[in-house]
């Protein structure tokens, strides 16, 4: 057995504590450097105007870094504090070294990768990521190594730096008395005791911290705006602390009757605005969900910007003959949140519904409610069957048929990453709609305008490149929709169909007003009637969860149902937009935005006068903030309590 020399043994015994602290300190330095990278890479999205705010974020981030470092290095800690002489074995020390380097290299890679991914999600990645993409080919993500090559290079640099600094932690000092057995075991047992105490304190956020154990929500204490919270956090911590699915807590801000009065969720549409109720009774419904279809891409919705043309010439043209909601918002930031929001009025609140403990709840949905009205239904998604969990969830909410890449059957048109190119798949969708019995409700979810933002080789140079790689993809999918409608026009069902075009989520581009906590959720919602019966531009505040009650109203659905959204055609309803990011709520009503966490409002902004959210009006308009807070609390109470009770449907009389 290879044993280190007596001189080396004394060195190891004497410096175990010092070296362990030094090495963990190296990792803490690396985490701080990664936070600096996060700041410079995403500076345009963070809205950090003061150096004090940056210092506060870095200071707050240290405790999250310490917790993450101690969590991930538990094996290293355990092996390093054992009070036995076999710890002096050279092989044992080598195992400790490589365990340290491998564990922390993985953490560096994860953390750096999430710096780039933040630009798509506006939050740190949580454990739900693995469920969200559980059916995807992991090799698809290898493309990101090249697409984000600057971050890849920085990850390599930081790993090399860590390894270099690790080698410099060896000490040459020694003391004779450490050779004595009683001194050796006594000092090492004492060291182990203190190491355990301080490690537990660090894991939980501080020995004297009354908020133990530290959670993601604590990061909000160090920021002024929701999108800044991700800079306080680190991804290893976020993954660890969300490993268990979150459970909603019952809420009692108001009585149930009072909450329902403030923000009604029990809908009875036949009593609403009669001139529009049932106007489209018996019509087919096609809901087109466009991947990353941000409001920013549509020139027709940005006419106030001189010289801005956008990237959607077909949508610009179609919107002139459609009913367009110009003030619309997504309820989530990832694709798996879109279908629950649009089809069932269940928004993203804390955790994606389809990944939550409540995903098995009995639900209202557009296809399920219309089934009783004689509708057949189909869901189309060009990805591999099972991708994003859309196949099982579409079945759960009542879609009769599912058409994916398997049913499409031609892998030569696969984009190599996510699914069938939008152009051929939407044309396929149109042909399949010919086979459905009318009336039908169908939905098609596009895939091409997704990272890595490729388009077919024969289309290269056809669409404006813009400042971001995805802009050409937006142009391509816009053209694919043009082709879809041209194909659909030839079918008998076309004139008898109501089309809804909506995004799954937004994504920040280049315009500053779309990089704020509210602007990052802005999307188009467009209703198109080929018969020309519904044309106009409506500034009513709209959100994805309003689509279901609005469609049901137009179709004349008379039975009561539960909906967290409101009928957009009814001006008497409380029209709001609610978003949740990392347990920070934001709600918009009229022109006002409130930011809410820990049961209180911490921000109030006028989105008309201050679209970039630079002036917090909370201290100047407390009465308005209290009124908005009341409505948001009623919404949250109804949401939490109904999901907990599985009370999302109304039993048939």
From TrEMBL:
Q: Which PANTHER family match?
A: LIPOTEICHOIC ACID SYNTHASE, PHOSPHOGLYCEROL TRANSFERASE I
TM segments? Answer: 20-41, 61-86, 98-120, 148-166, 182-203
Q: Where does Mn(2+) bind?
A: 291, 504-505
* Top-level taxon of the source organism: Bacteria
Q: What is its main location?
A: membrane
Catalytic residue positions: 335
User: Source organism lineage?
Assistant: Bacteria, Pseudomonadati, Bacteroidota, Bacteroidia, Bacteroidales
> What are the protein's UniProt keywords?
Cell membrane, Manganese, Membrane, Metal-binding, Transmembrane, Transmembrane helix
Asked if the keyword Nuclease belongs to this entry, the reply reads no
Per the record, membrane topology reads:
Multi-pass membrane protein
What is the recorded name of this protein? Lipoteichoic acid synthase 1
Tell where it localizes: Cell membrane
Check the record and name the InterPro entries matching this protein. Answer: Alkaline_phosphatase_core_sf, LtaS-like, OpgB/LTA_synthase_biosynth, Sulfatase_N
* Location of the Sulfatase N-terminal domain: 283-557
**Residues that, per the record, bind substrate:** 450
Keyword Lipid biosynthesis listed? The answer is no
A GO term from the CC aspect: plasma membrane
GO MF annotations, alphabetized: metal ion binding
